[in-house]
Amino acid sequence: MAPPRGKDIDSRTKGASRRSLLVGGAALGLLGAVGCSRVSGTDARDGGNLLERLRAQGTVRLGIAGEIPFGYIDKNGDFTGEAPEIAKVIFKRLGVAKVQPVPTEFGSLIPGLRSQQFDVVSAGMYINPERCAQVIFSDPDYRMRDAFIVRKGNPKNLHNYDDIVKHKAKMATGTAYAEIDYAKNAGVKESDMLILPDQLAGLLAVEQGRADVFAGTTVTVHNVVKQRNSRLAEATEPFQPMLDGKPDIGAGGFAFRPEETKLRDAFNAELHKMKKSGELLRIVRPFGFTEQEMTDLTAKELCT
After folding, report:
1. Could you give the 3-state DSSP secondary structure of residue 4?
2. CA distance readout (Å), 290 to 154, 155, 175, 223, 234
3. Per-residue model confidence as pLDDT tens for the chain (304 residues)
4. CA dist 208 → 10, 193, 231, 265 (Å)
């Protein structure tokens, strides 16, 4: 998350995110079907005890938002995506053999984590100061630029948010996407934006002429155009979004409850090994990620 700048309470209510506005206590989707007892890590002494509890239980519950390619249930019913596949490897090495998906709305991920509906957010969530005030993050496993879905041939010549304003194009994007903030900063009125559930709805809106452009992360946008083999729309080249005249770096990671520093630190240690060995890129490459999306940024840098 998307994974956007980071959807949920977030990314800036003063701004949204790819995956930003805190959607109050939005329904936690299919939680009732998960049927797994909660594992509380409320003992904050010495960094919490959730890791030990997860090892004893043998299962970790991962909050996902059903967003391709960050974390979703595929057509075969399998739990997959960039973040879940990383989590599967890391938690196995931490002594937790099984991962269990808990689908919800992106805006409900942080509230759901804090209320112990699941143990970790595994949704490619963008790391930013607003979210860092509520949860703690692993270091990012990717960084991302934006791209557009436009009509074939890009008739309005749309390559960044300034172009949307310049050509008076009708823009669409996803619920709570960071792209809302980027567009507003460029001069697009939020009231003029078409807010849609996801990138597939965005592709259809462009194909049907209800929008000139759909804005999202480059991996999300390119994946949906490729998977649908669209004859009417195409994805633009990636570009760096700007906020207040400065590049706004979107980088995503895993979120943990603030008291669970032991779990976060153990997770980080394994993540760093995967980065160093190149294993991380091998895991995420099937989901459209490339060397350009790899990063050495830290959560501390992104939180401040």
Report:
1. coil
2. 24, 28, 26, 13, 20
3. 444 444 444 333 333 344 433 333 333 333 333 333 344 445 556 788 999 999 999 999 999 998 888 999 998 999 999 999 999 999 999 999 999 999 998 889 999 999 999 999 999 999 999 999 999 999 999 999 999 999 999 999 999 999 999 999 999 999 878 899 999 999 999 999 999 988 999 999 999 999 999 999 999 899 999 989 999 999 999 999 998 998 988 899 999 999 999 999 999 999 999 999 999 999 999 999 999 999 999 999 999 8
4. 31, 16, 12, 47
Closest CA to 70 of 274, 288, 256, 225: 288
Q: Which residue has the tokens 């900063």?
A: 185
Cβ neighbours, 10 Å, residue 77: 6
Q: How many CA atoms lie within 13 A of 51 on its CB side?
A: 21
Give the separation between CA 47 and CA 216, rounded to whole angstroms.
Answer: 36
Q: What angle do CA 202, 15, 183 make, to 5 degrees?
A: 50
Tokens describing residue 131: 């979210």
Euclidean distance between CA atoms 123 and 252, whole angstroms: 8
For 287, the 3-state DSSP assignment is helix
Spatial separation of the C-alpha atoms in residues 24 and 217, rounded to whole Å: 24
129: cis peptide before it, omega within 30°?
A: no
The per-residue DSSP string of 96-154 comes to --EEEEEE--GGGHHHHHHTTSSSEEEEEEEP-HHHHTT-EEPPPSEEE-EEEEEETT-
The residue among 248, 269, 294, 292 whose CA lies nearest residue 15 is: 248
